[in-house]
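QA checklist item 7 of 12: single-chain prediction sanity check.
[x] sequence parsed
[x] length recorded as 382
[x] structure emitted
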Amino acid sequence: MGFFNFEPLTLPPEAEQLRQEVRDFLDEAMADMRPVDRAFNWMGRDAEFSRKLGRKGWIGMTWPKQFGGQERTFLERYVLSEELLAAGAPVAAHWIADRQSGPMIISVGTDEQREFFLPKIAAGEMSFCIGMSEPDSGSDLAATRSKAEKVDGGWKLSGTKVWTSGAHEADYMIGLFRNEANPEKKHEGLTQFLIDMKSDGLTIRPIINLAGQHHFNECVFDEVFVPDTRVVGKVGNGWKQVTSELAFERSGPERYLSCIQLIIEMIRLAKDRDDPSLNEELGRMTAHVMTLRRMSLAVAGKLQRGENPALEASVVKDVGGVFEQSLPEIAQRLFEDEPTLMDGTDFQEVLAFLMQEAPSFSLRGGTREILRGIIARGLGLR
């Protein structure tokens, strides 16, 4: 039977030194940013801000120097991510490429792909989206029906991807398509492709969420041609690759810091109130955040040691999502201020935004049911 391994980790001096450097940069770069805008957290997008981070060497910082990286540690990258998220920095323009698309290309891409894509990502000049989910397949990635048909010099892609965050602004997608159909072996015959989002035959349709925001999209492929040079990894090896990619997606501090601005606003309000019960509630919240942080740090330690963090990352994502979704309800119970996005206080506006956004936290990056299935399998329970 398996078990969780959240080995305690102390950050090295170079990581803590970087923390202060990042804080000084953010204090200047985000001086005029409103709390409600910070509440967008890693879904906030500012291409120029991403380019600034690129110039600092803070995108792809663990990658080889020959591809624009800095060859710094995963622990230093963790500190950078933590500070960006805590400040609510608008990082969406590079976040997916830095977090998973770039590492995927480093891991299984060709030399030509590495030389073409990685320096542009590291400079904050190329944005990626993820083409996994499909209509009518729920969270069952192995039920992918979008087809890849082999043609002379490449492939023609047909089908639909849905809930694709940032597709309308991304330069490229890493998409999962079925190159061979076998109902008895649905985890086989899947391949990943690097897809130019300006390709002929690709239509991107907006999906507006409950908060009135346009993050999600439906991407319809009508015989979109992709050359052989844009196959990621091996043909037919898509399932193994995509599950490895998801470990990167689920392992970062964004899985428990998406609502951090609401906690900050609650603490600000509590300072003016002499209320022991309120302080006790805020102390409990802080303890939850610090526990999740220690768990997330342990996952970063596994990455640094070259170990597979899939099981522990799923635990952090699941527990973190449950915690974050509880925060707007707790805030309403503790404070009488009504949520509003129209000329409210910072607390009211942040609360109103996150009340509408939080339902998505148990969906993105894998639903709760899928995560708990992974955890159960890892523990030998199924």
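[x] summary fact logged: DSSP finds twelve helices and eight strands in the chain.
[ ] second reviewer sign-off
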